[in-house]
Design goal:
Strands 3-2-1-4-5 form a five-stranded mixed β-sheet, sandwiched between helices. It has four helices and five strands, in the order E-E-E-H-E-H-E-H-H. Strand 2 and strand 3 form a beta hairpin. It is an alpha/beta fold. The protein has one domain: Nucleotidyltransferase, domain 5 (2-Layer Sandwich), CATH 3.30.420. The chain is globular. Helices cover about 45% and strands about 20% of the residues.
């Protein structure tokens, strides 16, 4: 699976999308609507225990009824893979099989650092930034995905 954004199948031209910024300690979550193409930070799942993580994800899926899931795929600046890349691929396969929803991997290089800059520009102190950075990173990942879809969509 390539790290480049992929088109949502035509049958999925509308619907809610959840995006995840996977980490070993926290998972940032963002939400958006395909038709509107706008992402917003939703929450952060702050747990290292898989059972708690998947229970929280199940609750979000039950509440928001997404048609599609996005997972940020971290790579090195040169695009090469590393340990977190493999963990994210595993996470994406797990949520796809557990919840039966299509998952697209999206290149997330620099999303966390961009989120940190955005939050600092809002004047938040480091403690407030730490609480929100993962969800904002997920928002950036999802917005990048939407922007790529809009750019790739045929204009009528």
């Amino acid at each position: 699976m390539s790290a480049a954004p992929q088109l949502v199948p035509q049958a999925r031209a509308t619907g809610t999308v959840l995006a995840f910024d996977f980490g070993t300690r926290r998972i940032g979550v963002a939400i958006g609507e395909i038709l509107l193409g706008q992402a917003r930070a939703l929450t952060t799942i702050a747990s290292e225990e898989n059972a708690k993580r998947f229970a929280a994800i199940a609750g979000l899926i039950a509440e928001w009824q997404p048609s599609h899931l996005i997972v940020g795929l971290p790579t090195s600046p040169d695009g090469s893979e590393h340990e977190m890349t493999r963990r994210c691929r595993r996470f994406s396969r797990q949520i796809e099989s557990r919840f039966g929803l299509p998952v697209t991997l999206v290149d997330e290089r620099f999303s966390s650092s961009e989120a940190e800059v955005r939050l600092a520009e809002e004047g938040l102190n480091w403690q407030s930034r730490k609480q929100r950075v993962d969800a904002v990173a997920a928002q950036i990942i999802l917005q990048d995905y939407f922007d790529a879809q809009h750019h790739l969509a045929p204009h009528t």
